[in-house]
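Batch job 17 of 40 flagged for manual review because the log was empty.
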Amino acid sequence: MARLRLAVLDVDGTLKEAESPYQFLHRRLGIAHLAAENRDLALSGRISYGEWLRRDVALWRGQRVADICAMLAENPFLPGAPEFLRALKASGVCVALVTAGFTYNTEPIVAEFGIDYVLANELAQENGLLTGIAVNHVPEGGKAAFACDLRARLGVSLEETLAAGDTAGDLELFDCAGVRVAVNPRSPTLARRADVVFAPDLTGAVDWLTQRGYLPLTESS
């Protein structure tokens, strides 16, 4: 069984408790009712993902970036997620985050754990205030393109790659990895395609990986 060399991880609902940083902030700001209509339109296919993103982020125009970051800091990691990230990094695995969320949500994770690569959307700001405009770096299909490009650039095989996610939007990541991890899956299809399912969090993930030889044994193992 091949040792892991690359892990490509979703963030929201996979590493962090909140399923969506957008909904998380809407609730914190007391505007969830304003965002609900656009979410329903997107889920029913009546507006595109790009249009939903444009409308959703426009609701935050004028918010202080510092306040947004402070609110996001209140969204905790799922139990087992910090240990999972530390074990991957300690084993020399290249770790990448890919999320339809945004960089204000991923930057603290990168700083704390030394994440190697990140793909996330951006929220534009001027003078410390959000402009209400998003830069969409993760269109539909963008997660797979990112993962496959990384594998090619790093010369990593399918068997040496792990992907983890929680929703149907992460199925495309599973096509790019030989080790497929579903975390508290919200999609029956994702759960069926996974090699392992952890619910409701990532407790036990490190043990599972080391016992199967994907990560090297350590003294604590």
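Reviewer: the log was empty due to a logging misconfiguration, but the result itself is present. Strands lie at 6-9, 94-102, 117-126, 129-135, 161-165, 179-183, 196-198. Unflagging and moving on to job 18.
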